[in-house]
Specification:
Oligomer: single chain
Shape: flat
Order of helices and strands: HHHHHHHHHHHHHHHHHHHHHHHHHHHH
Largest sheet: none
Helix content: over 70%
Strand content: under 5%
Radius of gyration: 29 Å
Length: 545
């Protein structure tokens, strides 16, 4: 279902393009806890459900209200919750505990003993509630898990007793001597808590892996992959745990079975998230994941959604900002097939999301290996990309234009590229990109617009070594626009990277067409050293006095 698939992509695309300079890095799937990214009032409302029981919990010490244990279980967690819901509840509780422990350390530093004690009691309650809640939906905990639970509860009780003694004395010397013990106990509580959470998440990852590996049911496998994807959205640490427990191996096994074809998009989306960490990348290499992705991309019987998700995995594993891609030796062996398939996907894309993922993968590959630019030239990729930019339904955001201009900038180092640009009316497109502005004011979109402006100027500077391109740029009034970007900070959103690129392009065009500049522009923007012109332009801020 294309609408479901598009909806699944919406949040990932919004989060992906966070404002990093694409010449250095490409946006990728999430590595942050989404809990921190929601509206503060909404977060407070969600946390309130977990925090309002604290006072009664202090008295009851997590003892059941009813005699029957099963009734207590029904009271704590509704039976409608799925495993995924329960894990989300556990992670929220863990996030609250982690936050409280940090705040306790801060209050302890300031010797606010009353606050330290009340917060310690609250942590004690949350720890007990978290353990009870987890045990209600997981009745197969290991002996090691129970040992850690007991250690943590005992240490929390000890911590509470320590802080209670502290508020009962006013002797500064005694408090000073007790402070080191409290600090030590806090550190131990945090350590036990971290180990318990690590153990819980590892066990849950193992359970999901077992379901994926042993089940022949599409429904059960789909549910397990969905839960696994939810876990990957909680951050890089969880992705590492999943990778270490064989998540990449299990998911590629799914991608090699025809009976699970309907699950390929979801499976590949989860793989892209896991491969944001080094452990995921190493596992991908071990199971010949690149070859599998190449097979999927070149198989015309797969759906567009499957191809797009495979492109997303390629974009992830070739991201320039990752430092651990050098071991992808098998990628070079399959690069021509992959690039060919991605160009075709760009050409046939039915939506902006599909084009974005395919073009992002191509943009990354042009950084990954210079041979990719030569392959793209042979495939007439520049003509295809320039044509796509004229379709506002396909290249419909600054993010997509960012990918296109990145590819053009990297291809512009080739001498043959100039004629392709002229034939495809590419200079006109680059000129339009110099006017790229955000319509929403969203910070991620503004950053994407800056990257578009910067890379279009870089591309112009590189291509203008060809007299024909330089002449076309002058006729399209590129020089006045570059001067405006240099002299007006608001036009470039105060971006230094845009300024440097525009100064470089202006100097290249001035050599080819010196008559296009007024003397003052020449004296300030072209004649001095680049650093002097840069300093001059950065001091042209408007005065509001």
């Amino acid at each position: 279902d294309s609408s479901l698939w598009r909806s699944a992509h919406k949040n990932r695309i919004n989060m992906a393009f966070k404002g990093e300079d694409h010449l250095d890095s490409l946006p990728l799937p999430v590595q942050r806890m989404h809990l921190i990214q929601v509206d503060s009032v909404q977060r407070w409302m969600e946390d309130l459900k977990l925090m309002t029981d604290c006072e009664c919990m202090c008295i009851l010490q997590s003892k059941p209200i009813s005699i029957e244990k099963d009734e207590q279980n029904e009271f704590i967690l509704s039976s409608q919750y799925s495993t995924c819901d329960n894990l989300q509840l556990l992670l929220k509780r863990a996030w609250i505990i982690s936050t409280e422990l940090t705040r306790i350390a801060q209050k302890l530093e300031k010797n606010k003993w009353q606050r330290v004690h009340s917060m310690t009691v609250r942590v004690n309650c949350h720890v007990r509630s978290m353990i009870n809640e987890y045990n209600t939906f997981n009745r197969n905990s290991s002996e090691e898990m129970h040992q850690f639970e007991k250690l943590l509860i005992d240490k929390c009780s000890e911590f509470t007793a320590f802080t209670e003694r502290c508020i009962q004395t006013e002797d500064e010397q005694i408090l000073k001597s007790m402070k080191s013990c409290v600090n030590e106990t806090l550190t131990t509580v945090a350590q036990y808590f971290g180990q318990l959470i690590e153990l819980v998440l590892t066990q849950e990852a193992q359970n999901l892996m077992r379901q994926i590996e042993l089940s022949d049911s599409v429904y059960i496998t789909e549910s397990a992959i969905s839960s696994l994807f939810s876990l990957t959205q909680e951050g890089a640490h969880l992705c590492r745990i999943i990778a270490k427990e064989g998540g990449v191996v299990a998911l590629f096994r799914i991608c090699r079975q025809d009976c699970f074809r309907c699950l390929y998009p979801q499976t590949l989306r989860t793989l892209a998230s896991i491969c944001c960490v080094e452990e995921g990348m190493h596992q991908l290499e071990k199971v010949d994941g690149i070859l599998c992705l190449a097979d999927i991309l070149t198989d015309n019987t797969h759906s567009e959604a499957t191809h797009a998700e495979a492109a997303a995995v390629i974009a992830q594993i070739t991201s320039p900002h990752l430092t651990f891609t050098q071991h992808l030796s098998s990628f070079l062996e399959n690069m021509e097939e992959i690039v060919t398939a991605l160009v075709k996907l760009c050409q046939e894309a039915s939506s902006g999301e599909v084009f974005l993922l395919a073009s992002a993968a191509l943009a990354n590959i042009t950084f990954f290996d210079t041979m990719a630019c030569e392959i793209l030239l042979q495939l007439n990729a520049m003509k295809i990309l320039l044509a796509a930019c004229s379709d506002k339904h396909i290249v419909d955001t600054p993010y997509s234009r960012d990918q296109v201009v990145t590819i053009l900038a990297n291809m512009s180092v080739l001498d043959q590229c100039a004629s392709e640009i002229i034939q495809g009316n590419g200079v006109q497109l680059l000129m339009e990109m110099l006017f790229e502005r955000s319509s929403s004011g969203n910070s991620a979109e503004v950053a994407a617009c800056e990257r578009v402006q910067q890379k279009s100027a870089v591309t112009l500077a590189r291509l203008s070594r060809d007299p024909e391109v330089a002449d076309a740029a002058v006729k399209l009034s590129c020089i006045p626009r570059l001067i405006k970007l240099c002299r007006s900070p608001t036009e470039r959103n105060n971006s230094d990277s845009v300024l440097v690129a525009c100064l470089a392009a202006l100097r290249r065009l001035a050599v080819m067409s010196p008559d296009g500049l007024e003397d003052s522009d020449f004296q300030q923007l072209v004649k001095p050293r680049l650093v002097d012109s840069f300093l001059l332009c950065t001091n042209m801020e408007e005065s509001f006095v």
